[in-house]
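Students often ask why inverse folding is considered easier than folding. One informal answer: many sequences map to the same fold, so there is more than one right answer. In these notes we will look at a single instance of the problem. The structure comes first.
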């Protein structure tokens, strides 16, 4: 028995050397080959354990001690099997490192094209979608997208990268750490199954009729050996089947709500900061392989940059991303910066292996910018959606004396939340599929984790929320229906706090709220997205859980008055911007336009004069909503209206719609539903030169819904 066990152990080592351990199938077994390989690897260990048990039993006479001996044998076999698994784990790790398949390297630059109706649409909206886009196929969408890229300076190598297929191993379900899961699962199953199998088979032998097992042979050494071999075989079978069941269950329920803590990105506060843009493996999902992403400093979301307003920041970004990424450009979203520092989509680009230092004075209207929640992201023309989807986003917070003097929550009670949606494949990767109406994910992430929990105290918290999704809107609410106190928008504090039970947040919009957990000690509260339909392809409604498990003393309050909105002079110029879709010969929308023109580099679509005030009015005469982002300065919303049309078919303002109290502050990203419009006013200050205005539903921007305005000197 010992010789057989030793030979089988040697066979196990040989099998490990000849076969990558990932075929154990612990992550997501996909066929008989994986299950059979697992049996081959586990079987010698089980047989060795059975042999050791038989030898010990013979030496010590355990087989003559009745039920007690049976338990001793089962325990000894379980212990030996456990010891063998643990003892061979280092060997397995060494062999895994040397012989396992190469790390998953999906082509993150590759873009798929999707013309199906988005999951978030209702049945009625899908019928409208079919009427508007029913003749648009993926090949046609790809042709239009790549035609845009040729016009805006993308290299042939960038085109080739985007048309290359995704790496095939993404769909294989075999991650680099599946062997570790298999060992754990086999250990748990075998440990539980071995005593049961041995006891069951022993009882079967003892109770079998004499015709099957003659009485004179029931207690012979041969019958004992056979029963133990049968027990070992049954144990291996149960281990493999149990491993398959456990692994399949894990794959089907990869996200256990509120099983991982909220991660707060690290904060960079220096006046001179260097951030490396690089490809990295980020452990986004709680289990399984990491997700290959394009990142700032190797994390997702990127580090939070937090600076005092009015003090110049020099932020250096180094492009160490793969060659197929192309050139980078960084937009400090919400900042009032010189045009050269604004993240131009085609100019001031950062080639691979190079770096660029952006200089932000954090001044506006001749004074320090207001304290505000902003963010930074890649802004390369035609591929902004792809680059943000793959991880290039982070929060940027400004503080000032006015805000700091208010008794609002601060320090550890000032919490940033970057909310995004992504779709993960079987290997936890996030292939990017371009859609003309916007790319949607089926999993919400909060600070890069799915449905995390956050331990809070029974007091007030200031929560800064950014919707960094490509297309999907958020409608925030609390599970207990309690109101949230909104104190700020995209551009800083409101004039006064507003109580809201539901907060709509479009892509790129930010909101600052105060959540009060007083009186809720020992309870859990869930932050919800109440807008997402509970249908396949959509994320769950539950975003994250607050666990009120800290008994704290309240040290903050929300003042009745916050920050007055500055008054703008009477506008000296009115401009109109009509949002539409261009149609191909079959009448199918193929590009998004502003004033019937797709974006064209170098064309100036508006030329406001420095230190003058203008009113800009946007008309959404298209079948989709949009989220209009205006670079450079902050704006005040003065009107919302339904669309009407004049005798020539041109859109004009119709019936007025209410401007809500939470919009009565400065902003720079504005939601405009289909068949509606809005008007905003601002004064252009400090800088001259070109800036962008565009839809921040990123695929709309990449499909040409962008224009250039250039501020000129008086």
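Output (designed amino acids):
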């Amino acid at each position: 028995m010992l010789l057989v066990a030793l030979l089988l152990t040697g066979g196990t080592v040989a099998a490990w050397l000849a076969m990558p351990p990932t075929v154990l199938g612990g992550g997501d077994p996909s066929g008989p080959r994986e299950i059979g390989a697992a049996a081959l690897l586990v079987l010698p260990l089980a047989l060795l354990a059975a042999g050791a048990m038989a030898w010990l039993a013979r030496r010590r006479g355990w087989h003559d001690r009745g039920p007690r001996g049976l338990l001793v044998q089962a325990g000894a076999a379980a212990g030996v099997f456990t010891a063998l698994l643990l003892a061979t784990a280092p060997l397995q790790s060494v062999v895994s490192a040397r012989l396992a398949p190469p790390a998953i390297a999906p082509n993150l630059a590759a873009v798929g094209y999707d013309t199906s109706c988005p999951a978030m649409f209702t049945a009625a909206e899908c019928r409208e979608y079919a009427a508007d886009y029913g003749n648009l196929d993926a090949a046609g969408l790809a042709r239009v997208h790549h035609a845009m890229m040729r016009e805006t300076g993308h290299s042939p190598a960038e085109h080739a990268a985007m048309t290359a297929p995704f790496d095939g191993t993404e769909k294989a379900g075999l991650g680099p750490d599946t062997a570790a899961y298999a060992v754990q699962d086999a250990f748990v199953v075998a440990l539980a199954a071995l005593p049961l199998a041995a006891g069951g088979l022993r009882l079967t032998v003892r109770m079998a009729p004499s015709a099957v097992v003659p009485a004179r042979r029931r207690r012979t050494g041969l019958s004992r050996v056979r029963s133990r071999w049968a027990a070992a075989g049954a144990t291996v079978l149960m281990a493999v089947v149990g491993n398959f069941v456990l692994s399949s269950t894990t794959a089907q329920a990869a996200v256990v709500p509120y099983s991982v803590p909220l991660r707060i990105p690290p904060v960079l506060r220096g006046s001179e900061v260097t951030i490396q843009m690089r490809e990295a493996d980020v452990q986004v999902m709680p289990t399984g392989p990491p997700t290959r992403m394009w990142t700032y400093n190797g994390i997702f979301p990127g580090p939070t940059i937090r600076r005092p307003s009015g003090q110049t920041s020099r932020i250096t970004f180094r492009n160490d991303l793969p060659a197929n990424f192309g050139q980078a450009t960084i937009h400090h979203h919400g900042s009032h910066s010189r045009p050269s520092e604004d993240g131009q989509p085609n100019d001031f680009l950062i080639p691979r292996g190079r770096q660029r230092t952006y200089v932000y004075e954090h001044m506006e209207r001749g004074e320090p910018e207001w304290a505000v929640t902003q963010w930074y992201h890649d802004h390369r023309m035609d591929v902004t959606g792809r680059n943000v989807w793959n991880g290039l986003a982070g929060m940027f917070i400004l503080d000032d004396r006015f805000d700091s003097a208010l008794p609002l929550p601060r320090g550890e009670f000032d919490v940033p939340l970057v909310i995004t949606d992504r779709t993960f494949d079987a290997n936890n990767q996030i292939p990017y599929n371009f859609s003309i109406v916007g790319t949607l994910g089926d999993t919400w992430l909060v600070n890069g984790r799915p449905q995390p929990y956050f331990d809070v105290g029974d007091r007030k918290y200031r929560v800064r929320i950014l919707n960094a999704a490509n297309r999907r809107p958020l409608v925030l609410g609390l599970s207990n229906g309690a109101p949230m106190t909104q104190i700020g928008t995209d551009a800083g504090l409101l004039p006064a706090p507003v109580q809201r039970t539901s907060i709509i947040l479009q892509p790129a919009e930010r909101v600052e709220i105060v959540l009060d957990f007083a009186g809720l000690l020992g309870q859990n509260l869930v932050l919800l997205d109440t807008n997402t339909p509970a249908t396949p392809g959509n994320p769950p409604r539950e975003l994250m859980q607050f666990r009120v498990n800290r008994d704290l003393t309240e040290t903050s309050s929300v003042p009745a008055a916050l920050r007055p909105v500055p008054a703008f002079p009477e506008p000296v110029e009115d401009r109109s911007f009509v949002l539409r879709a261009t149609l191909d010969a079959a009448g199918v929308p193929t590009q998004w336009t502003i004033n019937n023109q797709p974006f064209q580099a170098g064309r100036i679509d508006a030329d406001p004069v420095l230190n003058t005030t203008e009113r800009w009015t946007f008309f959404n005469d298209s079948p989709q909503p949009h989220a209009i982002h205006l670079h450079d300065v902050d704006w005040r919303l003065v009107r919302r209206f339904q669309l009407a049309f004049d005798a020539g078919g041109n859109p004009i303002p119709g019936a007025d719609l209410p401007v809500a109290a939470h919009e009565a502050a400065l902003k720079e990203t504005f939601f405009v539903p289909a068949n509606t419009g809005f008007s905003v006013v601002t004064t252009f200050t400090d800088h001259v030169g070109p800036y962008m205005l565009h839809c921040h539903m990123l695929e709309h921007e990449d499909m040409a819904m962008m224009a250039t305005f250039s501020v000129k000197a008086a």
